[in-house]
Each structure stands twice: as C-alpha cells, then as structure tokens.
Design a protein that fits this description.
Blueprint lengths: L3 H18 L4 H23 L1 H17 L6 H4 L9 H7 L2 H9 L8 H12 L2 H8 L5 H14 L5 H10 L7 H13 L18 H15 L1 H9 L12 H16 L5 H15 L4 H18 L12
Length: about 300
C-alpha cells in the first residue's frame, strides 16, 4: 500500500510544480497529484510482473538452445529450476495481477533488451548460482531467490530507470517505494495460496483525502505560511534558501495546523527526513531549526491543536 510518507512527497511535489507553473487552477494541479498517486500503484504491479518476464526470457533461451543443429547435453537437459520457480509461477498465473496489468495496459513487451540485461545480471549473481546448484526444491528457496532479485538487482539499475522514465514521467523517484511494496507482497506469499494477495492502494480510505487536503491547504495558505517562516530566516541570505526548503516547510505547516490527529513529532520527523532526499545537503538541519521555532509560535497562537490517543 502507498505509505503516508509517499503521499506527503507527492503533495509537496504537486505544490512545487503548481507554484513553478504559476497556474491559477488548483483543480488541475490536484488532478495531477491524484494521477501521480495512481501511477505509483501501477508501478507496483508493473514491477511485480518483472520477474515473470525474466523467467520467460530464460525459458526462451533454453528452448532456442534445444533447437540448435548440434545441441550439447546441457542444451538438451537444461537446469529448469528458475524457469519452474513456484513463486514466479504463482505471479504469472495470478488473476489479480494479470487483470490489473491488462486493465491498465501495463507491459514490458517493448523492452526486450532490459529483460535480457536483467536476466544476464541475475545469472551472474552469487545467490542465483547457489540457488541453481542447490539440490533443494522448496517454495521457501524459490521465494528467497525472487526476494533477492527484487532486493539486489533493480534499485541501482540505470537501464531500468531509463525505461521507467520513458514509460511515465510520473514514476520519477517511485521505484524504491514500489519495490518495498513488492517485497511486502512476497513476504505474505504461501505455498497454499492460489492467487497473489496484492496490497491495497491505501491502508485507509482517509489516505487519498489526506493527500488532497494537504496539497490544498499548503497551496491556499502558501503566502501566509511563508510569512511566518520568514520571521525566522531574516538573518539568512534569501537567495541561498532553496525554493524546495520553503515548499517543504510550508507543507509541514499545513499538516501541523490542519490535521489534529497527527502528532507534532511525527510531522516534524517526516519532513526532516524528506528534506534529506529532496533538497540540499544542509536542508534537513536548517528546516529542523526553523520548524521548531514555527511550532512554538503556532502553538502560542493556538493554531496547533492536537487531539486523540498518543499525541505529542
């Protein structure tokens, strides 16, 4: 399922794009936000099907080797362990996966070179060699091999990143989140299952509304919230404050003041972590210091009101 952290990132990216475009239409920017969230869920299914394509390519190589004019013993008697991997088979035959892929027109058919490259990369890995030479044939071992593939081969693949960028600009930076969703799905698989238990798009029905409201509140109150922030950045060179820093802090302020059930500490921790990846090297420390002062001011003004169990 799509995490609240990713929803926060989507909201602040939508705000960044909205401000940079100088658009006056919040509705159009919100539609882009929703489309971006939907595409992340598409990417989850796209990535889940990737191992199936890699195994099919391995099968095609073996079938082609058998058709040689002078096939070797190995050509005629290939090691079919990976091709017949039970976890890969479960994904390949999954109605829930295949129906989604068909409905949303998701496929790797246009990228045979990527599939070939990933198979050759997998084939050279030590865990694959160990798997193929092991005499064990179990669902547990099959699952470990597939999990290792998603854990080790994909996030740093430049070729995969290029393909994903070509498929959708809305998948920028989403690969890591999609892979986490895939590995969670794998961890829930059992030999007795007849279909893949795919993750829901959201943990709660409130999640999409959270993202939409966060974006709306941040956009509508951008100027007024920025004025509060500027009270604590007057001694800084304005030109040296990254635009994304302001976007992150304004979005954090929108969450602090608009969502009474989310603890202050949770909000601060989330946006400080986000700053480490989406702004400058020093941004997280800078944002942490400014937001601490902002929280004190907003609390004194009565603009931060938290209620519910476990709130700080």
């Amino acid at each position: 399922m799509i995490s609240r952290r990713l929803l926060r990132i989507k909201a602040l990216k939508a705000l960044y794009a909205h401000l940079k475009s100088e658009s006056e239409s919040l509705m159009a920017s919100e539609k882009t936000l929703i489309a971006s969230i939907d595409k992340t869920y598409d990417l989850y299914f796209q990535m889940l099907s990737l191992i199936v394509e890699v195994a099919r390519y391995a099968d095609e190589r073996q079938q082609a080797a058998m058709q040689k004019k002078l096939p070797t013993y190995e050509d005629l008697n290939p090691n079919r362990k990976f091709v017949e991997n039970a976890v890969v088979h479960l994904i390949a035959e999954s109605d829930s996966v295949n129906d989604y892929l068909a409905t949303h027109k998701l496929s790797w058919a246009r990228y045979p070179e990527l599939i070939k490259a990933l198979y050759l990369q997998l084939e050279q890995s030590e865990y694959y060699k160990k798997y193929m030479t092991s005499q064990e044939r179990s669902f547990r071992e099959d699952l470990a091999l597939v999990t290792d593939f998603y854990t080790n081969e994909l996030e740093s693949s430049e070729m995969l990143e290029e393909v994903l960028d070509e498929q959708s600009i809305l998948w920028n930076d989403d690969l890591g989140f999609a892979l986490i969703m895939v590995t969670r799905t794998l961890s829930n698989m059992r030999q007795s299952h007849r279909d893949v238990k795919v993750l829901p798009k959201f943990k709660s029905e409130e999640d999409l509304e959270f993202a939409k409201e966060l974006f709306e509140k941040a956009a509508v109150n951008y100027d007024s919230n920025l004025e509060v922030i500027e009270q604590f950045t007057r001694n800084w060179d304005i030109e040296r404050i990254a635009f994304m820093d302001n976007v992150i802090m304004v979005t954090a302020m929108a969450e602090l003041t608009s969502f009474p059930s989310i603890p202050v500490k949770v909000t601060l921790d989330e946006y400080i972590e986000i700053a480490k990846y989406y702004s400058t090297a020093s941004s997280s420390t800078f944002i942490n210091g400014v937001l601490d002062k902002v929280v004190n001011t907003l609390t004194e003004e009565g603009r931060i009101n938290k209620s519910g169990r476990g709130l700080i």
